[in-house]
């Protein structure tokens, strides 16, 4: 069944679209404060499709993500009571509490780590606003964490280039179905 090949081909087609950069900026900005799709899902295929523009895409993603992080910071500082129910509803409350604990223990290093890791960055941007983290360290940590992550993704895609695109196209269905099996097994093991 070639389900993942179809998705891969569509993603690669979209990544070459003339408005792809605008969508990348929008996704990067919104993911830092409220949207759930990480920008990596656009950055990687765009960097793979146009390796010579990979670092340009990484810069767009980083800047838009940090600006979106400032929106998240503002939400935490000015409107936390409005978003608290959403954190509960979207099952981010435990992550928010963990972010608060990290701020108490490590301060700005928590933002740096969250910016680089797969931990939801939006939770940390909101928490930074709630605890009134100083703005300059927040921006610098966000630039360092997000920039490192996005430039790493772009560099790997640029390095792999056409060879990686061909290899992914060849094995995408096997990898996709393998990920589905791993996710199901993991869910079954963790739900006991």
TrEMBL record:
<feature type="transmembrane region" description="Helical">
    <location>
        <begin position="57"/>
        <end position="80"/>
    </location>
</feature>
<keyword id="KW-0812">Transmembrane</keyword>
<dbReference type="InterPro" id="IPR032816">
    <property type="entry name" value="VTT_dom"/>
</dbReference>
<dbReference type="InterPro" id="IPR051311">
    <property type="entry name" value="DedA_domain"/>
</dbReference>
<keyword id="KW-1133">Transmembrane helix</keyword>
<feature type="transmembrane region" description="Helical">
    <location>
        <begin position="101"/>
        <end position="117"/>
    </location>
</feature>
<keyword id="KW-0472">Membrane</keyword>
<dbReference type="Pfam" id="PF09335">
    <property type="entry name" value="VTT_dom"/>
</dbReference>
<protein>
    <submittedName>
        <fullName>SNARE associated Golgi protein-related protein</fullName>
    </submittedName>
</protein>
<feature type="domain" description="VTT">
    <location>
        <begin position="38"/>
        <end position="157"/>
    </location>
</feature>
<feature type="transmembrane region" description="Helical">
    <location>
        <begin position="123"/>
        <end position="143"/>
    </location>
</feature>
<feature type="transmembrane region" description="Helical">
    <location>
        <begin position="174"/>
        <end position="190"/>
    </location>
</feature>
<dbReference type="GO" id="GO:0005886">
    <property type="term" value="C:plasma membrane"/>
</dbReference>
<feature type="transmembrane region" description="Helical">
    <location>
        <begin position="20"/>
        <end position="37"/>
    </location>
</feature>
